[in-house]
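Input record (one chain):
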Amino acid sequence: MIYETVAAVDLGSNSFRLQVGRVVDDQIYPLDSMKEPVRLASGLTADKRLDAQAQARALDGLRRFGERLRGLDGGAVRAVATNTLRVAKNALEFLPLAEEALGFPIEIIAGREEARLIYIGASHSLPSAAHKRLVVDIGGGSTEFIIGKRHEPQLMESLYMGCVSYTQRFFPDRRVDRKRLREAQVAAAKEIELIAHDYQRLGWKEAVGSSGTARAIADVLELNNLNPNGESGITRIGLDRLCALLVKAGSAEALNLPGISRDRQPVFVGGTAIMSAIFEELDLERMTYADGALRLGVLYDLLGRFHHHDMRDSTVEQFRRRYQVDREQVERVETTALSALTQLSEGEPAEADVQFLAWACRLHEIGISVAHNGYHKHGAYILTYADMPGFSKKDQAQLAMLVLGHRGKLEKLGGLPAADGAWRLVFCLRLAVLLHRTRDDRPLPAWRVRPGDNGFRIELPADWLAANPWTAAAFGEEAAVWRQIGREYLLDKPKAARKGE
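The corresponding structure, as predicted from the sequence alone:
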């Protein structure tokens, strides 16, 4: 049975998290989320038993989650517990109390199962790619390493090291000095060394971090310009600079950098030490960040299906239905726009250009569902702020830009550099929309486009333009719009050859 609303509960070693999602066309759209900074791992005693205080914090958080989940069918909710409850000797005594508080069964999952679910969640929050990815998730008590392709994990491992456990072990008073930090890094490196050979032998093209530690480190590096050349994500140079600042400040609290939340401060140093060791042992230079992790993976696993195609295609299709787009019209526009792109390109156009132009064609009229007047602006707003599974914020911004620019003045795209290849996509979309203004299947004349010295050239038969004065006038207006931004838009009008010539 497929439910309209599903929920995942992640009983992590640092935080408990709840994610509620709505299922639409095999995609999951977030509805609600909750977080409880329980720090379960900090309640493990020396003999690996969960102490009373940690149990009390956990039960309080689960009761709040249970209130939010009240009314959902048991089949629509899946709760999983990770490393701390894997190793706690009294976990089986605690589990019935936890299930009573939550109101749903709780599974204690193995490390590799956790890794599998993390990869599914991360891959579903990233654009589809043909290359292999390394996904790293530093949790409170364990760190998962997964290499996979598309939505299929290929190599998975879970190591017993986490931001909570390492903070307690190496920084019990939260003080940081060079010796303690190096000891933590060396300890983590020894763990990673056990799996490094197998991972490097399989290889990957892109490294991705998921969950709170990676997000916090990336935020700190970006907000404080610690990465070289304004790079995003996590870089080796940025990590080295961050470690130096932590040693100089003496603690994460004293460092007081933007990006470290109050909840994250107590375990930030342990997570940073582990991340530094990961970069060193796996010879990484850069790592991007994925929003999706264990909770999203649990939700997709709950549905019992995996997507072996680009999630963005499915999302675009769902948007077309949601906003009742005129399918025949956008198909006409898409065919013509892609033909124009092929003519403008030297050889085959780039796959990314084809994808974004096709998506923009399919979605350029979604704003009509709001109002026809200024519909391109409404559409761009929707694409900027809507939840679009598979699309990064950068992807959404580009798509919104194309939809915004498909009609009206072009000055509104002033932030787009003159040499940016996106101008070709804007041109192709605008041309296709103009040629199909009649919104019917009447055949187009023989037309051609080619690059100009500082813009574009369009060739249309003179007799066709004479027979279609409304469209001819529209081309004149279009040329004026492009001239306003300093680009040429030349219309060549070859005459039909006379008989016998």
